[in-house]
Design brief:
mainly alpha
C-alpha cells in the first residue's frame, strides 16, 4: 500500500461515518450544530487507531523497500 492509498482510506472512512446518522448528526439548521454521536465518537476512535496501524505498516514497508533498493544499488556498483 502506498501513502496515497492510506490518505484515500482516511478520507473515505471519515466521509462514510459523516453520512451515517448513527454516527453523525447533521443539522438542517447549520453546520455549527453538526456533531458526532456517542457511537460516532467510538467509531472514529477505533477507525483512527486502525488507520494509524495501517500507516505504520505502510511506512515500514516503504522503508524496507528503500533499504533493499540501496543494497541492490550498492551491489551493482561494487
Amino acid at each position: 500500500m502506498d501513502r496515497q492509498a492510506v490518505k484515500d482510506l482516511v478520507y473515505g472512512g471519515l466521509s462514510e461515518i459523516s453520512r451515517n446518522s448513527k454516527y453523525y448528526y447533521a443539522s438542517g439548521v447549520g453546520s455549527s450544530y453538526n456533531h458526532l454521536t456517542d457511537d460516532g465518537r467510538v467509531a472514529v476512535g477505533e477507525f483512527i487507531e486502525e488507520m494509524i496501524r495501517i500507516l505504520h505498516k505502510t511506512e515500514q514497508e516503504l522503508l524496507d523497500k528503500r533499504a533493499k533498493e540501496m543494497v541492490i544499488a550498492g551491489l551493482k556498483t561494487s
